[in-house]
Amino acid sequence: MDVRDRLTRWALQRPHVLLVAAPVGTTLRWRVETELGRRRWPAASSPADADILLTLAQIGDLDDAADVLWGQVPPPRLRVHIDSGDDISRVLDDAARALSERPAREPAEPRPLDAGDGDGDIAGLPMAGGGPDRDGMELDALTVHLGPVLPGWPAGLVVSATLQGDVMTDVGARVLGPTVGDPRPDPTLVALDALERVLIVSGWTAAAREAARLRGVLAGDGPPTADAVRRVRALVGAVRRSRALGWSLRDLRGTDERVQRWCDVVEQGVAGRPGAAALPAYVPLTDVPELLDGLDVGSARIAVAALPLALTSRDRAAQS
Amino acid sequence: MTAVVAVLAGAVLLGAAAAIADRAVTARGGPRGATTEVLRSGVRLLVKGRRTTVAGDRLLWRTGVAAVPVLAIAAAAVVPVAGRSLLSTSADLVWFNAMEALMWAAVWLVGWGPNSIHPLVGGYRFLAQGLAYELPLMFSLITAGLAAGSLRATDVVAAQQGLWFVVTMPVAFVVFVASAAAFAFWGPFASPASSDIAGGVLAELSGPDRLLVQVGRYTLLGVSAAMAAALFLGGGHGPWLPDVVWTAVKSLAVLGALVWLGRRLPVVRPDRFVDVAWMVLVPLTLVQALVVALLVLAGAY
Amino acid sequence: MPDTGLAAHLLAAVLGIVAVGTGIAVFRVDSMARATFSLLASFLAVAAMLGLLGLTYLAVVTALMMTIEMAIMAVFMIMFMMNPAGLMPMTMTHNQRGSFVAGTTTFVVLTAGVWLVDWPARGGSLPADATRQLGEAIMGSHMLVMLVIGIGLFATILAGTVLATARGRYDRFGAELDRREPSDPLPGGLPR
């Protein structure tokens, strides 16, 4: 029906995008995110909320993860790939057009992708076993993998844990996707990226959006304009002074100090004193399990968002 | 029958106003842009397909999802407008409380149903947060009833003829307005649906299910703002303009203030918040009730 | 004002069947979550019947209290149980013979009582404010007792909780109660 089609096209003019990016290729990711922000296309908070699954450049073994996520995106949906040399704007325009032509119903998948293969009890999945938790109670223990694609989460990181209630124990961390690639980006931008992650995960969406916009503005050529500097200072000041944010981050394994450090880096960078020495020391992946053990899922997400993780080979080289 | 339709329309309009105000405060683009965006999100959700999960409890899940908007509208049945409410019993305030409590259970069902870790964590966060907020909300409702000498919503409005209740019970007013956000898990209380658990209870919802839950949330926000205006800001009382207009103006004012303030704060972590709710809010609302009780005995009402 | 027409009788009958049916369902379903919510549905049907009888306050308060109870059950019986039995067959009955006998006897006695007792006729008319009359009837002459019992119940709950926790003041603040900040596995929102 014509009316229904036109309504669908109008409704999908601002599709929700789920971005699958590798640990390297940060610059491309930032350019894509800036363009998406300019078009006001929101980032999907989960696959159920997404219309477009966007994969960037080379994603290596993140491809399997992308397939699983694709299975969870409800129709009408579209899968798009952007390479480093592509014209981002044109690709997104084509995507928007193609999306509105997608059917609202698709033939069902032959079997759900997350059903188990084994001879477990229900739908092939085994029931969760039990075990004593930190208070000595017998709680069910569930193995869970966080990542590699979550809002406000370092790209490509997968944290596996045994969840009892929502407390994580037996934490393990690994990286998916290519880790060798382009040069390290500007420290100010890295710091703004980290701040954006923390703000997203803390639920301060207005400040997170401002941080993303400023990252896009500062990534442009030439020195930062006076207006940009003013906005950066305003954002950093608000983040530093926020009592509510400080309350959430208090006593969270040093997250508060890390956020203050990131704020320092941004301020110094914008004042014209950038330098790799200003960045906080990178935390190797092997330190992550100890840092997250015993935290609940929400706290762990905030802690990870603020961590300066060494995910790419250049970060690891810079550590030593 | 027309009354039912009027209440339904009023509740949905309040919910739409809440959603538009929310969008206008968080994004740039002004009120017209916000209205378009809210409509666009709504139509988009109607167009998207529904989801099912593996080995989920479909009956409980869909029941919870359907219950959320129904209960929000049921809570609207006791909001007094122009001296009447759709449902006018001798225990209106308790009905309002009961609808919010049922919504609390319904959102847990939305979290439990899909057999997925993020909604489950979101559902339990909502349980803990809601339980911590239940007592302060009850005490603030009772305080309004105490001052009016009746649990009927229209009596509470009538008792504010001379002086608005917010003057003598400001704590109860603030707690009640914040409870609108707490039970709609919105704003600073959005941890059951926040990004750190990938959308929480909303994580596995898509299409019409997601729309129902979002409509329910915003409707509860709007209806609670209207109830706050009726219980504490004198309802329809005011010079020159008719009752209905004053009710609308006050409700929208409370809603606007709530949305503006709520969006300036980050999401509070539930394990931090429950400490404050039990240790600070419960004694505070009790003391407020005591003060109002003494005032009632002294004949101030 | 209770309606005594045919519609009200039919509605009461339907609600009664729903209440009994969902009550039976509590023991037949295979999931603690479904059992909890069947029980809630049963209580809500009973609350609706109380509403039909014109006892509005009792109806709403029953609905409110039972909902809160079921939600807390969702925490303790589902979250903390070793096997909340989401999908596997489970059985919730014990001492089946004894409870069958006790239940049937109670049902028969109560039903016989309902039909055979000579209920007194109503003297007077419906009160204007049923809630106020209920409050005065319950608490009018027994206010002091209500207050004392209320505080006693609250103290019992607190005492029970304190006795049940494994950690006390001395674990949190040290043997001399002199630590500035308590040592908790998870910090709360207040600095205490």
Terminal residue distance of chain C: 52 Å
Distance between the termini of chain B: 36 Å
CATH architecture of the domain at 6-86 and 128-173 in chain C: Up-down Bundle
Q: Which H/E pattern describes the elements of chain C? A: HHHHHHH
Order of helices and strands of chain B: HHHHHHHHHHH
Chain pair with largest interface:
A-B, 55 and 45 residues
Largest sheet of chain C: none
Shape estimate of chain C: extended
Secondary structure category of chain C: mainly alpha
Total number of helices of chain B:
11
Rounded Rg of chain B = 19 Å
Radius of gyration of chain C: 23 Å
The CATH class of the domain at 6-86 and 128-173 in chain C: Mainly Alpha
Structural class of chain B: mainly alpha
Major sheet of chain B, described briefly? none
Oligomer: heterotrimer
Number of strands of chain C: 0
Mean pLDDT figure of chain C: 85
Stretches of chain C where pLDDT falls below 50 for ≥5 residues?
none
Spell out the key features of this protein.
heterotrimer; A: 320 residues; alpha/beta; four-stranded antiparallel β-sheet; three-stranded parallel β-sheet; 7 strands; C: 192 residues; mainly alpha; Four Helix Bundle (Hemerythrin (Met), subunit A); 7 helices; 66% helix
Structure description:
The complex is a heterotrimer of chains A (320), B (301) and C (192). In chain A, 43% of the residues lie in helices and 14% in strands. By secondary structure, chain A is α/β, with parallel strands linked by helices. A 4-stranded antiparallel β-sheet of chain A has the order 4-5-6-7. In chain A, strands 1-2-3 form a 3-stranded parallel β-sheet, with helices on both faces. Chain B is mainly alpha-helical. Chain C has 192 residues and is an all-alpha fold. Chain C is built from 7 helices and no strands. In chain C, helix 1 runs antiparallel to helix 2 and helix 2 runs antiparallel to helix 3. The interface between A and B is large, with 55 and 45 residues.
